[in-house]
Design goal:
The protein is mainly alpha-helical. Helix 1 packs across helix 4. It starts with a helix and ends with a helix. 10% of the residues are buried.
Length: 79
């Protein structure tokens, strides 16, 4: 159960990140690699603001988990 809930949490955070990328950066199937290569700390900060604003996030722990998931996602992509 823990693994399933962790997987669901991870998946949801990545989905939110891509919602942000689609809305703010116009990510699509043709340009996602280029956009992901250009992501910097400013874009990550904007994605956090997007998450908080659009989903009414009010707990720091939720943001910490989001940041951790996005960091893990980029680590995965680098490998």
């Amino acid at each position: 159960d823990f693994y399933d809930s962790s997987l669901a949490t991870y998946k949801r955070k990545v989905e939110v990140f891509f919602e942000f990328l689609i809305q703010d950066y116009g990510v699509n199937d043709n340009n996602y690699r280029e956009v992901l290569r250009g992501i910097d700390s400013i874009a990550i900060t904007k994605s956090i603001e997007f998450y908080v604003k659009n989903y009414g996030i009010s707990f720091k722990n939720t943001i910490d988990t989001y940041i951790s998931v996005i960091r893990s996602y980029f680590d995965f992509l680098n490998k």
